[in-house]
Design a protein that fits this description.
The chain is of the alpha+beta class. It is built from eight helices and four strands, in the order E-H-H-E-H-H-E-H-H-E-H-H. Bound molecules: inosine-5'-diphosphate and magnesium ion (MG).
C-alpha cells in the first residue's frame, strides 16, 4: 500500500547546492513527488517538530541551523515510502552514515546532516499535517507505476 512521508531538505542542502541531487535520488528510486514547497522555518514550528530534543544541549544550535536559510519541504509517496526514504537518508550522525546514503555521501555532522525524514507512518502523518494543507497536494496519475510495482504493491 502506498504511504506518504515528509522530507525536509535542510538549509545546508540549499546553501550547498544539493537540492537537485537529493530530490533526484528520490525520483530515481521511483518515489512519487506529491507536494513541494520552500519556506523559512520559525521557532514556533521547530519547537513542536523537534520537541523530543528540547532538553538536549544542542537544541538551540539545531534550531538556529534550521532557521539559517529556507528549507524545501517535500512529500514523497510510494510502497513503504517511510522506511525506504529513512534508509536512503542514513544514520543521524552523518559520520556514521553508510556511504551510498544521502547523509553518508554529502555530510560530516551529527547536526548538519542535509535532510529530515519521518521515522514512522504515524509520525509521517503528523508531520505532513504540520507543514502541508490539503491544497498543497497535487493529484496526478503516476503513469509508470506498472513498470515500478507489481499489482499487489500499488
Ligand atoms: P533524525 O533526523 O535522524 O530522525 P533525530 O534524533 O530525530 O534524528 O534528531 C533530529 C535532528 O537533530 C537530527 O537530524 C540532527 O540534525 C539533530 N541531532 C540529533 N542528534 C544530535 C546530536 O547528537 N548532536 C547534534 N545534533 C543532533
Ligand atoms: Mg527524527
Amino acid at each position: 500500500m502506498a504511504e506518504r512521508t515528509l522530507v525536509i531538505l535542510k538549509p545546508g542542502a540549499l546553501q550547498r547546492g544539493l537540492v537537485g541531487e537529493v530530490i533526484s535520488r528520490f525520483e530515481k528510486r521511483g518515489l512519487k513527488l506529491v507536494a513541494l514547497k520552500m519556506v523559512r522555518l520559525t521557532d514556533e514550528v521547530l519547537d513542536i517538530h523537534y520537541a523530543h530534543l528540547k532538553d538536549r544541549p544542542f537544541f538551540p544550535w539545531l534550531k538556529n541551523g534550521m532557521k539559517a536559510a529556507p528549507v524545501i519541504l517535500c512529500c514523497w509517496e510510494g510502497c513503504e515510502a517511510v522506511k525506504v526514504v529513512r534508509e536512503m537518508a542514513g544514520a543521524t550522525n552523518a559520520r556514521k552514515a553508510v556511504p551510498g546514503t544521502i547523509r553518508g555521501d554529502y555530510s560530516m555532522s551529527a547536526q548538519e546532516n542535509i535532510i529530515h525524514t519521518s521515522d514512522s507512518p504515524e509520525n509521517a502523518a503528523i508531520e505532513l499535517d504540520r507543514f502541508f494543507v490539503p491544497e498543497d497536494y497535487c493529484e496526478y496519475q503516476s503513469v509508470l507505476d506498472p513498470f515500478k510495482y507489481s499489482p499487489d504493491e500499488i
